[in-house]
Amino acid sequence: MAGSVFGTIFKISTWGESHGKGIGVVVDGCPAGLALCEDDIQVYLNRRKPGQSKFSTPRKEDDAVEILSGVFEGKTTGTPISMVVYNKTQRSGDYGEIARCYRPGHADYTFDEKYGFRDYRGGGRSSGRETIARVAAGAIAAKLLYQMGIEVYAYTESIGDVKIDAARFDDKEARDTNPLNMPDATAAEEAAKLVAEQMANYDSVGGVIACSVTGLPTGIGEPVFEKLDANLSKAIFSIGAVKGVEIGDGFSAATAFGSANNDAFAMKNGKVTKLTNHAGGILGGISDGSDLFLRAAIKPTPSIFSEQQTVSREHEDMMLQIKGRHDPIIVPRAVVVVEAMTAIVLLDMLLVGMSARADRVIEFYTKK
Amino acid sequence: MAGSVFGTIFKISTWGESHGKGIGVVVDGCPAGLALCEDDIQVYLNRRKPGQSKFSTPRKEDDAVEILSGVFEGKTTGTPISMVVYNKTQRSGDYGEIARCYRPGHADYTFDEKYGFRDYRGGGRSSGRETIARVAAGAIAAKLLYQMGIEVYAYTESIGDVKIDAARFDDKEARDTNPLNMPDATAAEEAAKLVAEQMANYDSVGGVIACSVTGLPTGIGEPVFEKLDANLSKAIFSIGAVKGVEIGDGFSAATAFGSANNDAFAMKNGKVTKLTNHAGGILGGISDGSDLFLRAAIKPTPSIFSEQQTVSREHEDMMLQIKGRHDPIIVPRAVVVVEAMTAIVLLDMLLVGMSARADRVIEFYTKK
Amino acid sequence: MAGSVFGTIFKISTWGESHGKGIGVVVDGCPAGLALCEDDIQVYLNRRKPGQSKFSTPRKEDDAVEILSGVFEGKTTGTPISMVVYNKTQRSGDYGEIARCYRPGHADYTFDEKYGFRDYRGGGRSSGRETIARVAAGAIAAKLLYQMGIEVYAYTESIGDVKIDAARFDDKEARDTNPLNMPDATAAEEAAKLVAEQMANYDSVGGVIACSVTGLPTGIGEPVFEKLDANLSKAIFSIGAVKGVEIGDGFSAATAFGSANNDAFAMKNGKVTKLTNHAGGILGGISDGSDLFLRAAIKPTPSIFSEQQTVSREHEDMMLQIKGRHDPIIVPRAVVVVEAMTAIVLLDMLLVGMSARADRVIEFYTKK
Amino acid sequence: MAGSVFGTIFKISTWGESHGKGIGVVVDGCPAGLALCEDDIQVYLNRRKPGQSKFSTPRKEDDAVEILSGVFEGKTTGTPISMVVYNKTQRSGDYGEIARCYRPGHADYTFDEKYGFRDYRGGGRSSGRETIARVAAGAIAAKLLYQMGIEVYAYTESIGDVKIDAARFDDKEARDTNPLNMPDATAAEEAAKLVAEQMANYDSVGGVIACSVTGLPTGIGEPVFEKLDANLSKAIFSIGAVKGVEIGDGFSAATAFGSANNDAFAMKNGKVTKLTNHAGGILGGISDGSDLFLRAAIKPTPSIFSEQQTVSREHEDMMLQIKGRHDPIIVPRAVVVVEAMTAIVLLDMLLVGMSARADRVIEFYTKK
Fold this sequence. Notes:
Four copies of one chain form a homotetramer.
Chain A: E1 5-6, E2 11-16, E3 22-28, H1 38-48, E4 65-67, E5 71-72, E6 75-76, E7 81-86, H2 96-100, H3 108-115, H4 131-147, E8 151-159, E9 162-163, H5 185-200, E10 207-214, H6 228-237, E11 242-247, H7 258-261, E12 265-268, E13 271-274, E14 282-283, E15 286-287, E16 292-298, E17 308-311, E18 317-320, H8 331-352, H9 358-366
Antiparallel strand pairs in A: 1-2, 2-3, 3-7, 4-7, 5-6, 8-9, 8-10, 10-16, 11-16, 12-13, 14-15, 17-18
Helix pairs in contact in A: 1-4, 1-8, 4-8, 6-8
């Protein structure tokens, strides 16, 4: 099956391996006439770039994006937008044990089982570098959403057991003032200590990424299988290392009673509003006009430097000592990926949602 | 967009409203030659039937399924299998306030916003009765999976704050000995008390459903966007009232360290195995041969009998007192729905996964 | 693969066999608020009903459609519209040789090869009755198109070597005044003679169906693979017995020179128009504002009463003498099917086409 | 809608404009383990290269393909294969009238109507260079098909009114001995004269391409909408300049009688065979084991050098004199494109067809 294609109208096809020639994406179905240049993409890519703090791999990658098609005279043409980031750090090199055995927590074993062999260089297709393509496509979606007054904002909510304090969550910009992307300086400091400790232990740390969306119109999302939350959860779960997704109160809703979990409706400035937002902005799979809120659980980086038990491709028990350069935590770099996937889903569902009402369809085609 | 169609090869199209003529599903892409009769479906439907305990609505619905096509001489023909459950309990009746206002926690408001109006009879398309179609289709998928040695088993893990004790989890059959579908008699008793209390309070309760899959081959699931966990989470999140999904350790993985969360590989009876299963049977989106494990958070039933604040269709503030017949908890009845959606995703991905290797494709078509 | 599902946003799933319980279709993605009742569908179904002339099988089928979902208070709700036509003429009966051998020109052999067995009763899924579902769905599409000023009109252009004379093509109604659906009374008479002759010879006749569309906006259809003509040709070729499709001049364009085949542009009443329409209303896969024009070649009915050479399921040579009731020509009854499939494609591409321009998308969501 | 993505399992996404940075394709869903290198692709691309005879534009393009991903150690990995042909002949240059007006027979007008503007450089996305991506993807499909014993062979059947003589159709290689790709030297000579004449007249010529497939297993193709012929016709019609498609006898079947058009079955060397092949190898949309045969009508190149009437973007009547370099006929260069699209459809339907029978699915997953 074609696993690297996503979306219905705003449809993206990604490609590339960690140590291959590059990573790229073809964005098909992007509406025409959107002003777009490489800088619009680069600012997003820069947010996931490694080597920006002691908590991410020291690899220097400039990850410069190039637009190869679909933009003319500074605007999208409505035809496929092909983007590529060429890999600067290809190392033929000796991949040693990585090639010969299965790293615990990685996809080495499952790729071999599925395909009979794998591109073992730096994880090949299952490398975190694959997310470059998601972020590049998401930057385009986010730009168009922004012009509709819709803003997607993700951040690190917790690292290990260090959680941000809502009371200290001053402003969105605070997120970008620390390497862990936590919009709470105090928590960020504590988290930094935790990560540093585990680095020293040759260990790694996970965390939770939260994402909120403001300005989303009501009525977005389809009933039954194409619910907005269903598509968002698929998009978020498709990001490597995600082990859980929550919408609104998520799992804590399971322990609440109906009287507490229901969000009462009330008129406010002539508009229907909800007095609370336990639902996270979605009712019956369709946006309800409140802010959308979701959470993603990110497992600790499986690449750790302490010795681990595993088996070889030849199916012999062995001990593995991973070498090389690896992030002790991927949560901060995944923040922009969650933002990108959320933007891609929202734009796609906004585009498919234009045909929900007959009268609006008729008006659309007859007024012109 | 077509929100009621799901799947790539094993593709289902569901239809029907709570108080319409019936609920149905067309299953297209089911392999030919599978022995199938209405009883195969009915045993699954009976598990979600209401009126089986004091904890579900006293509505008497026999929900008898009829197969209209796609089966000949007791076997599936490979062409669409159309199934219908006619609604016996259609009540033209007066829907009173339900028709005129928005029930908190329900999709009344979002349907009106999306479509301009809605079928308000019993929730229309957003009613829990919609899941009849999922269960009917899932029963077919489960039967074919079973013939491949794959078993999907879901159960109630917790209700409110009452959780089953793994130590008391004796056998799978235990699930079916109590109305809450908890495979732990002691927890089931406690939970029954809790639900009874909240019924008396005119309130409702939520819970968590767990689902495990045994016998799944390795290599199922596709890289990047069509990961097995991504598709499972979409399927589960598409069930009304689900607010969270976890694979394996889920959110607790976010607070674990890599050394503890990684599952070491070891040879066992000549097979590659994992010494632990924090991953829940999926690595890089592809099944790893361990049991698959997922969890779904179910919110408390939004239909409660205590008075609630809301607004009318005419956008006036008002108080609502829901009447009629409603479950104080939907978790137990949703267990089989989680099982059904899991089976549908697994079968679909098994079918699309047949083409993963060139040598197997060539052998498939040349050996015949 | 799921072969019975068609469309992207206006998505239909059909089911049913010739002698099963019924034939049906689920229409998902139909915009909400369209006034719809069973009569809207029935008038289309009546046009394909058999037994209306000596040129169609004397089977009496009232083919009465029932809407099971998706319509409330006389309007479409935006959720799936399920429609069924129950088979009145089920005959358990003895299917004799039809069950035991392969009828030349039919799908008996290929179904057995694909699925291992087949529902042989009246052709099962490959029966012409399958088109009932297409026509029912097409009636809905045509109604919505009509409200946008778009009219789809198909007719019999030729039967055997008897072709209508454009000069005598007076008005569209003329089509419905003769059993062959030819809008040219003289040709219809000639054709009637031809068909009568071949009936007497125990033989059958084919023909060509033409279809024109007026009022289609410019800009409908997508570049490259989703060209309007590409989707139309797939839809028409999916109708049993179709062996060729032409857009505009079709095959005669292959023998024309560029100077003659190009359609010059000119301003007319302030609008860009084409002075000729060799292209048939489509340039580069996108509608150009001229009338759309296509043709479908229909092979002669394979069911003939003269003795034919064939093989049995047990792979023995044998002679076959088909009994029962069969049309000596299916062209007239296929006219409404071509109209239906054309309407379905046009509506679907109109709906997906709403998102072509960023400014219109932004206006759509911000003006509300 | 995403118009540049095609296929269900073997899914291709194409991108690029005539005078942009390049033309490319991402092939997702290609089975793993297929030996593949750039030469495998280049031999196909060389067949569509211009500048190879006086009948194609003198533009010198080496159209060298580069594989950017999805191949490791000389074999496909099962992940996306990204291929690109960089445009060597980018000319910023002055596009003069092409930019300011609508060329008759081209997509200039319809692109402007759909998207509000267009990349006018050399036709942008609607240029014939777009087919480079189809051929590159088709080369991969053809290689895998070949390993299953399936061969796709297309050729020029006629140019203008010059048709090859079946009697003179000696061998397949004959096609490649003349610039018009006609497997009949005599006809090729005649056709060459015709094209030369029309070049002198500043005019252009069309023709018909035929394509046959040998070695296709029975049972390929799905009932109803996903018929093999339906998908083939969509694929062929999606090629620019195609105005008609026929399967088997095509339009001549419409004038035949059933007794002549039916293909009788007979046993031959223990296999079910057809004594004739009017059906072109497809019955009921499913391959019947005979050779598959289809035809495509190609219109004359719309770019002619004689003066033509048209309108400007500012909607003023004007006369246009096209300059530059254009083929007087595109038929010969389109032959490999027809072959490529046919191969893509066949492989995709072979892959989706693996799941047709339950017993084979079970065997596939349990024997391993």
